[in-house]
Amino acid sequence: MAARGGFSNKFGFIMAAAGSAVGLGNIWKFPFEVVDGGGAAFVIIYLLCCFLLCFPVMIAEVAIGRKTNLNAVESFKKLGFPRWSFIGLMGIISGVLILSFYNVVAGWTIGFTFQMIQGNFEIGQQFGHFIADWKTIMIYSTVFMIATAYIVAQGVSGGIEKASKILMPTLLVIIIGLTLYSFTQEGAMNGVEYYLIPDFSKVTIQTIYGALGQAFFSLSLGMGALITYGSYVGKKDNLISSAVYITLADVSIATLAGLMMFAFLFSQNLPYDEGGAGLIYTVLPGAFASMGSTLGPILGTLFFLLLSFAALTSTVSLLEVPVAYLVDTFGLRRKRAVWLTAGGIYLLGIPSLLGNGAVPELTEFITYVGANKAASFMDFVEGIASNTMLPIGGFLICIFTTYVWNTKNLVEEVKNGNPEFANSWIASYVTFALKYLCPIILGVISIVTILDKFL
Ligand code: PHE
């Protein structure tokens, strides 16, 4: 088999995996999910899901990948359980679906970068119009998919790792700056209150379902992305501390982005519960406008540019999953696998692109989630792939790790690079969570929501 490449060191892995985790999920999706989930209670449930449920799943995924040095499908076979490789196949399908619509939102983001360069802050109010112009968005999305494919074609340490190392820290700095600035705006504290003071009386099963799906999406879990990235990690690297850094980076960027968004949102008196997927695109231009005609365009441009890059390090991981499969399993040359997959996924994304005003049937595709809310084709794919398939993928990974592979083997694998692990409380928690906590909670929520949707 051809050399697969790998991350050059632990830092490279952390940056690439944090690059995968931090993306549109944190900055675009998280705030409108918070609105859908009713505010602060959602935020708290989301945080609990990340630390208590997702963290153990992350350890399991990375350990499976590193143990086998293979992609999301082959790794199950190498461990000796070929029947379970369907988990990897399901993950590939989830990833393909996610990338198909994610690429469209990334297109909006590039478009906004150009609008900010021109200082066109009015664009916030014309968002609906902006995304309905499918021809322009299509150009941006095409550029974005080509950029993703180009990086993935460069291979693991050359492309994926290098891009993440520079872009991630810069994004964090600008978000911290914007958050501090947002606090100086009048009325910002109402937003902070909405975001931080929970009202648990409004929590429903839908809130929990949304928070759980968001946690999986944001941490790139449940679809084999971290099995694949784990397969490129060195045996001497400490998986636990890596996973802690990745989780903290992701969760802190999401929570900070939320804080900033709600401060800006309430200070501008915008109708916060109508925006849906357009929330950040309607709110942020107003915030940049308030900074004046010099600073506004500069920071606006920088922000959307960095958001595009954050999205890029995520799309790279989404594309890497099917590519690694084609390379390892079918012996395809990396470049060929990349362009084939990227092309296919791009085509699959066209209905999502057209469903934002251009084609009415796709724009009002379905009424779902038990809510009386019309949803576009994109909302529909997003609902299925991120909120349903990822937690189910996570559930299956827990079942596989504990009842098929055996947690003893997991612990053995994690001990490489972390010899004290076996006796640590983290090991006890991770095994407990993978065995009981995660499967029960993920299983119950998945079943209840599926029944709720289809019955
Ligand atoms: N975590 C990414 C984000 O928040 C999206 C993603 C999901 C990437 C699943 C890979 C796998 O933007």
From TrEMBL:
PANTHER family xref list: TRANSPORTER
Compartments in which it is found: Membrane
Entries under NCBIfam families matching the protein: Na_transp (NF037979)
Cellular-component GO terms for this entry: membrane
Keywords, in A-Z order: Membrane, Transmembrane, Transmembrane helix, Transport
Transmembrane segments: 12-28, 40-64, 84-117, 137-154, 166-183, 203-227, 239-266, 278-295, 302-325, 337-359, 380-405, 425-451
UniProt cross-references to SUPFAM superfamilies, sorted A to Z: SNF-like (SSF161070)
Membrane topology (UniProt): Multi-pass membrane protein
Pfam families, per database record: SNF (PF00209)
Organism from which the protein derives: Sediminitomix flava
Stated name of the protein: NSS family neurotransmitter:Na+ symporter
